[in-house]
Amino acid sequence: MKPLLQSDAFVRVAAPVAVGIVLFGLWEASFRLASVPVYLFPKPSDIFISLVQHGPSLLRALLVTLRVTLQAFIAATVLGTLIAFMFVQSRAIEVSLFPYAVLLQVTPVVAIAPLIIILVKNTQLSLTICATLVALFPIISNTTLGLRSVDPGLANYFRMNRASRLKTLIKLRIPGALPYFFGGLRISSGLALIGAVVAEFVAGTGGRSSGLAYEILDAGFTLDIPRMFAALFLITLTGVVLFSVMAALSRFALSNWHESEIRAET
Predict the structure, then answer these.
(1) I want to staple 147 with a disulfide (CB 3.0 to 4.6 A). Which of 42, 74, 124, 173 is the partner?
(2) pLDDT band for position 266 (50/70/90)?
(3) Are 47 and 229 in contact (CB under 8 A)?
(4) Can you list the alpha helix ranges (DSSP code H) found in the chain?
(5) How far apart (Å, rounded) are the C-alpha atoms in residues 139 and 136?
(6) Are 86 and 144 in contact (CB under 8 A)?
């Protein structure tokens, strides 16, 4: 049986956890020695206490933010994949439309979110649209690159056998594009979360439909700094979980045949 310390899966989890424990320990000890006031910068123990005290409201806000994030991520994945399929059918279509995809990527969501919130009366829908715009480009860019990165010899083989565009897409281009696609998913999942939080900041919605951004704003107004950090911790933890899920999905789909994941397991 392989020793635990030589297990790649164990090291993947244990190493970052050990680093985190050391960093949190240093943070706690140094702030206690320096007697840093909690209203300036809280210790990890202050954040944990606030997390427990405000657990129900923070978890409810987390669910709201997570719902917007997942809706935006799914929408970005579907739209981005369809747009990439369209781009790969014709260079003329890609050259004509790709600059507009770049335009969406470089436009700050903070600048256009107020307009979207005004035009779309439904707040949840407007937040989802803002987050989708942020998460869309990595899917388009990575999937298009993957669909175009086929082996020229295999492409000629399909052409010589008069394979249709649909058959070439399904049998050749899509399998070759999967590593790029999953790379896009890893980036896009985090961007969807960022887009959701930024859109919530701009919308500033309160009440039972408020997300973690509103909890941060409210904690800032009341100078409840530990609660602000607790909300930030939940956002960070959610981002890590989303990335880990996408990485696990990539390993599950590619580990049996693609060299990138096969190498990772040896």
Answers:
(1) 173
(2) very low
(3) yes
(4) 8-34, 44-53, 55-89, 91-106, 109-119, 123-148, 152-160, 165-168, 174-203, 212-221, 225-254, 259-265
(5) 6
(6) no
